[in-house]
Prior knowledge:
By secondary structure, chain A is an all-alpha fold. Chain A has a domain at 32-100. Chain A contains 5 helices and no strands. In chain A, helix 4 (63-79) packs antiparallel against helix 5 (83-100). Chain B folds into 2 domains: 19-195, no CATH class; 200-250. Helices cover 72% and strands 0% of the residues of chain B. Chain B contains 13 helices and no strands. Chain B has helices at 22-54, 58-68, 71-82, 87-97, 99-109, 118-126, 130-136, 145-169, 175-182, 184-199, 201-219, 228-246, 256-265. In chain B, helix 1 runs parallel beside helix 3, helix 3 (71-82) runs antiparallel to helix 4 and helix 7 runs antiparallel to helix 8. The longest helix of chain B has 33 residues, at 22-54. The termini of chain B are far apart. The chains are: A mainly alpha, B mainly alpha. Chains A and B meet through helix 1, helix 2, helix 3, helix 4 and helix 5 of A and helix 1, helix 2, helix 3, helix 4 and helix 5 of B.
Amino acid sequence: MNPGINASLVIIALSIYAVRLAPFIFLKGTIRSRFIRSFLYYVPYVTLAVMTFPAIITAAGNPLAGVLALAAGLAVAWIWGDLFAVACTCCAVVFVAGLFL
Amino acid sequence: MSKYETPSQSAAPEESRAPVSRGAWIRKGLRDGFPVCMGYFAVSFALGIAARNVGLSAVQAFFMSLGMVASAGEFAALTLIAAGAGVLEMIVTSLVVNLRYFLMSCSLTQKLDPKTPFWQKMILAFFVTDENFGLSSVVDGYLCPFYSYAIAVISVSGWCAGTVLGVVIGNILPDSVVAALSVALYGMFLAIIIPPAKKDRFLRGLVAASMAASGLFAVTPYLKEISSGFRIIILTLALAGAAALIKPVNDPDADAEDISKKEVEA
């Protein structure tokens, strides 16, 4: 079953809110399971890494530009770490690469 | 509003400048939220372009950004809509992709005054983003929810404005600029995962393994037929689960029973 765009947006928005609200409803104390705490701790790293690669390569339009953007993004994130700076660096690399490729 | 004063037992001279009134917390939130607003604007502009490519109108994109307030979550939403995903896949993917907000909310429940009314928690929960959580979780003493609301108001304004502009003027931008902005979100994801990985060798390995596995899924016959939504679910459950088994996180608050059990297993 494939809902339309509007229904999809409502379904996803409610799902995301449920994720954020659930702990405020159910969590009275701290989470006791060390496994669950560890799992939750590692989730963002795996999820974001999986979403970034290989999608960054294809999103740039040109695979080489994508590889350069990934390398530059990794370097700036490593050295500086500022969110805005890393995002702008990746954009600039793809734009400049587009002038030559 | 003496409720949010620094608790007397931890009061120190250098903390005397911390805001103690609701109004002061709101002013501090508006100030701290401004850089977040700038960053959100650039990133959500790229999100707006992606939304336009999937076929969303400016109004739909506005309500998506206002209703979800989630970078990776909205990106996954667009991926799901583009792929013509079913309801179950949408719900499960949204729950998994946004699981980090679950963790952040868990943490914030410990940061609030226990007497905080539930309606305040409902508002606070809606605006749990990486950046708002980052700012809110480091205040001294209890978190005054109005600090978080102020950050949310200013940052989400930039978030929604950027999304709408991405849809509207993404059309008139040359392809080279659109291609360039399309990678902004991935750059932001790198900025979230790389700095912690720099300090932790195990996290570095986990990030590298995640990217390698994702690349493998994208090119391997049969595996590449799996939609990107379920690829995220499968790899997150498998790799974060494996990481939790291999290297459970240390927690000074862990109860003694839990620790002794782990020591016996090790």
